[in-house]
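Quick review question:
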């Protein structure tokens, strides 16, 4: 989601260290809040000095941006790693919805941290910028499903951009409901309803 062209270059070992920094930072941000997490605490969690941390990030804003982006890219790859081949547009859309809810409800540590930081710290400008890029990526994904469905004559949607926004906003709300629910079988109980409502939004 983030333009990588101006980021610092690191050796393979340096890349591994950077990923550890991003992971530990995200964990701390989610547990105690962005404003309450000093650079030194992140360095301590990784086992490096604060001076070494500055070799990777110029400040907390850059670290926060990259931590959210790192987690988003890792998490969103989960949506497609076991997708069956040769699905039509409708089945691709429903598969994506299923994965979205499962991901939001999962207890994978960086997924939980991502949801906490990303959606509950929206007053922070750097998070808003990343959130906008992630939203645009998801909108393009939904639009690709709808355009493909038009090509396959599964539906006849004249404004796929507008419909993509409607379904994106609906699924985002359902993801938050899944994330906040205490029911472990929330997805099982609600998936059929969410899929049915999503398809109705296409009409």
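Suggested answer, residue by residue:
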């Amino acid at each position: 989601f983030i333009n990588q062209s101006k980021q610092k270059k690191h050796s393979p070992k340096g890349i591994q260290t950077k990923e550890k920094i991003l992971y530990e930072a995200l964990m701390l941000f989610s547990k105690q809040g962005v404003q309450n997490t000093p650079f030194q605490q992140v360095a301590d969690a990784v086992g490096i000095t604060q001076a070494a941390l500055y070799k990777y990030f110029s400040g907390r804003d850059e670290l926060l941006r990259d931590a959210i982006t790192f987690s988003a890219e890792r998490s969103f790859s989960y949506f497609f790693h076991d997708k069956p081949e040769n699905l039509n547009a409708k089945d691709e859309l429903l598969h994506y919805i299923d994965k979205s809810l499962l991901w939001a409800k999962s207890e994978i540590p960086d997924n939980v941290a991502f949801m906490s930081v990303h959606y509950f710290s929206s007053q922070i400008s750097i998070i808003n910028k990343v959130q906008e890029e992630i939203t645009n990526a998801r909108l393009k994904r939904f639009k690709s499903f709808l355009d493909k469905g038009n090509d396959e004559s599964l539906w006849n949607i004249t404004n796929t951009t507008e419909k993509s926004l409607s379904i994106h906003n609906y699924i985002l709300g359902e993801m938050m409901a899944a994330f906040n629910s205490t029911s472990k079988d929330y997805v099982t109980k609600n998936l059929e309803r969410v899929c049915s409502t999503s398809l109705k939004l296409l009409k």
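Why it works: The chain has nine helices and no strands. Residues 125-151 form the longest helix (27 residues).
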